[in-house]
């Protein structure tokens, strides 16, 4: 799920950036540091949308760096257990399939794929129903339910299922 | 049981479904807990957790009395509790792949080559191996694990090219269309790779009989680059590239991370001692030394293939011969063995095919290096030869390094074959008895 929240961060700036463009340098450094990172509490920071407040800078003793407390608004993405998500399949193998929903890697094991879907190997491995009507292969879009999440420093791992009602393939890439 | 009388279901009746549900859900909320109701509450918590399953079962029993529903609910609650116990078949990012629970155990094997963070536990691995086995045997395929260096290709670091090999820098094939070339320069890794002659045909024909894996002692980026050169379309080795980062033991290769039954796996490798636990599955390959650095690594002082501007014979080289042998093993396994497909063992087929190579040969050794003798004897016996210690009229071959010894002269006198030990090694590599005329022993000492 996406959230638009206000986060705070202490940014350290080297004196070479002081001058007319101090604020711009600070903002671009913030964006470079924070966009694409992940935390357990907030999830994945997708983009910084605006700066709310930059506090007064405090000069560090010993070095010439100055620390600014910056409050900024950003869009974060955090998957929750029980959440329903759409994801794109990236890899299919006999153990299940791996899908991606933005920065999140989701694994759906074959235990959590409906029993009527069988794994077919080949140069385009896929899961197909016995009558061939539904197929899950690389680049298919699926709707799945998250049953467990784990957040790392840079990545979020999730376990998903498509064994419940209304879950499964949304879009077959072959027909699109 | 007090549960029956205290339950709201009993009071509300079967037709007032919505209030029944509401009561059940209210009972599971924190403010309604009491010691007497603790037992009831646990059941109601189970009930609300498996609301959907219970919904289905209560719908079925809607016509019956409320007591009937109560009993049914007890049964459902118990059975649903049993179903919930997950066997944790594996973990992804340290969460069980079936129930999402956090697992911090170290049991199971990491399958990092399939996807980062994937671990499978032992029962799941055996279950997968069994289901796979049936599928592959039906489509008449076995498993083949291929080594890279010196087996399918030869790689050297650009800085290690000898002066006579520098001309190769201008003869490399384009990386755009990999399927046509065999000599590639990989700038970003500072390496140059030469694919062994016949390798593309080999892979194409072997893929029809075998499910193939790459298993190399190189690191993962190297393994993936080589897989891209050998298999640009990704049809042979898709997520089946195992590198040393994926192995469970250092300096040893193992079949524990290969998802195939050991009785159906064949291994093609040039290094015997990397497969200590699986020697019976191993087909030893003659090393491919294209670059001078590779020759020097193994202590050969001769000129490399690159320096002499030559290469292994395409249709008559090691890969072609091994392909013939693989076809024979495959054919024997599927067509000639008796019994159930799952009970057949490819290791037995391998040893029986090996045992026919030198069958009928009776060998005696003369002046062989003491260190090499036991190995040579073992190889010869594996190939079906009989090794004797004393001269005997039944002897057919004398294996010696010197034509001047007593046994060698006896061989010449009795018109027996006198061959160099390399005759035995060649038979081992090519899986065929080699013509003895190619392995004549020279006289090194003056005849007495």
Automatic annotation (TrEMBL), chain A:
Q: Where is the RNA polymerase Rpb7-like N-terminal domain?
A: 8-64
Q: Name one Pfam family in it.
A: S1
Domain (S1 motif) spans 79-156
One GO molecular function term of this record is: nucleotidyltransferase activity
Q: Which SUPFAM superfamilies match?
A: N-terminal, heterodimerisation domain of RBP7 (RpoE) (SSF88798), Nucleic acid-binding proteins (SSF50249)
As for subcellular location, the record says: Nucleus
Q: Which Gene Ontology BP terms does the record give?
A: nuclear-transcribed mRNA catabolic process; positive regulation of nuclear-transcribed mRNA poly(A) tail shortening; positive regulation of translational initiation; transcription initiation at RNA polymerase II promoter
Q: Which GO terms describe its cellular component?
A: P-body; RNA polymerase II, core complex
Give the keywords, sorted.
Answer: DNA-directed RNA polymerase, Nucleotidyltransferase, Nucleus, Transcription, Transferase
Q: What is the similarity comment for this entry? A: Belongs to the eukaryotic RPB7/RPC8 RNA polymerase subunit family.
- State the protein's purpose: DNA-dependent RNA polymerase which catalyzes the transcription of DNA into RNA using the four ribonucleoside triphosphates as substrates.
Its name, as the record gives it, is DNA-directed RNA polymerase subunit
């Amino acid at each position: 799920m996406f959230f638009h929240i206000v986060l705070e961060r202490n940014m350290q700036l080297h004196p070479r950036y002081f001058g007319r463009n101090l604020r711009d340098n600070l903002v671009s450094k913030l964006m470079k540091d924070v966009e694409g990172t992940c935390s357990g509490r907030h999830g994945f920071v997708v983009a910084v949308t605006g700066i709310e407040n930059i506090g007064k800078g405090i000069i560090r003793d010993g070095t010439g760096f100055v620390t600014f407390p910056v409050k900024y608004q950003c869009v974060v993405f955090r998957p929750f257990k029980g959440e329903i998500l759409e994801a794109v399949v990236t890899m299919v193998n006999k153990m299940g399939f791996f899908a991606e929903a933005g920065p999140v890697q989701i694994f759906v094991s074959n235990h959590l794929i409906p029993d009527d879907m069988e794994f077919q190997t080949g140069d385009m491995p896929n899961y197909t129903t016995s009558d061939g009507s539904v197929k899950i292969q690389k680049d298919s879009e699926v709707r799945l339910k998250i049953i467990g999440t784990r957040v790392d420093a840079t990545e979020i791992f999730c376990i998903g299922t498509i064994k419940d009602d209304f879950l499964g393939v949304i879009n077959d890439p072959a027909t699109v | 049981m007090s549960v029956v009388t205290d339950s709201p279901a009993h009071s509300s009746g079967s037709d007032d479904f919505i209030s029944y549900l509401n009561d059940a859900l209210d009972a599971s909320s924190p403010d309604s807990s009491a010691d007497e109701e603790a037992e009831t509450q646990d059941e109601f918590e189970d009930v609300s957790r498996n609301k959907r399953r219970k919904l289905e079962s209560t719908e079925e029993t809607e016509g019956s009395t409320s007591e009937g529903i109560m009993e049914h609910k007890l049964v459902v609650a118990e059975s649903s509790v049993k179903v919930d116990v997950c066997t944790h078949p594996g973990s992804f990012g340290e969460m069980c792949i079936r129930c999402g629970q956090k697992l911090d155990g170290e049991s199971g094997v990491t399958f990092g080559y399939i996807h980062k963070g994937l671990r499978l536990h032992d029962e799941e691995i055996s279950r997968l191996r069994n289901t796979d086995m049936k599928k592959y045997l039906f489509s008449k395929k076995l498993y083949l694990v291929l080594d890279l260096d010196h087996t399918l290709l030869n790689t050297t670091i650009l800085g290690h090219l000898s002066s006579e090999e520098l001309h190769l820098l201008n003869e490399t094939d384009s990386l755009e269309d990999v399927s046509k070339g065999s000599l590639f320069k990989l700038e970003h890794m500072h390496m140059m790779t030469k694919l062994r002659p016949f390798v593309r045909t080999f892979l194409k024909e072997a893929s029809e009989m075998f499910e193939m894996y790459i298993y190399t002692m190189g690191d993962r980026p190297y393994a993936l680059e080589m897989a891209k050169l050998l298999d640009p379309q990704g049809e042979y080795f898709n997520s089946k590239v195992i590198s040393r980062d994926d192995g469970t033991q250092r300096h040893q290769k193992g079949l524990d991370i290969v998802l195939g039954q050991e009785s159906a796996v064949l291994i093609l490798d040039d290094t015997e001692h990397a497969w200590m636990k699986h020697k019976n599955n191993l087909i030893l390959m003659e090393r491919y030394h294209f670059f001078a650095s590779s020759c020097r690594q193994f202590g050969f002082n001769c000129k490399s293939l690159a320096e002499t501007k030559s290469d292994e014979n395409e249709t008559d080289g090691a890969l072609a011969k091994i392909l013939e042998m693989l076809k024979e093993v495959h054919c024997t396994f599927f067509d000639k063995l008796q019994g159930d497909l799952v009970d057949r063992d490819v290791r037995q087929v391998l040893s029986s095919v090996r045992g026919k190579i030198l069958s009928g040969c009776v060998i005696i050794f003369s002046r062989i290096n003491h260190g090499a003798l036991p190995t040579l004897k073992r190889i010869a016996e594996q190939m079906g030869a009989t090794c004797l210690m004393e001269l005997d009229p039944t002897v057919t071959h004398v294996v010696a390094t010197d034509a001047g010894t007593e046994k060698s002269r006896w061989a010449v006198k009795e018109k027996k074959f006198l061959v160099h030990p390399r005759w035995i090694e060649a038979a081992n590599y090519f899986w065929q008895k080699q013509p003895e005329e190619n392995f004549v022993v020279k006289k090194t000492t003056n005849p007495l």
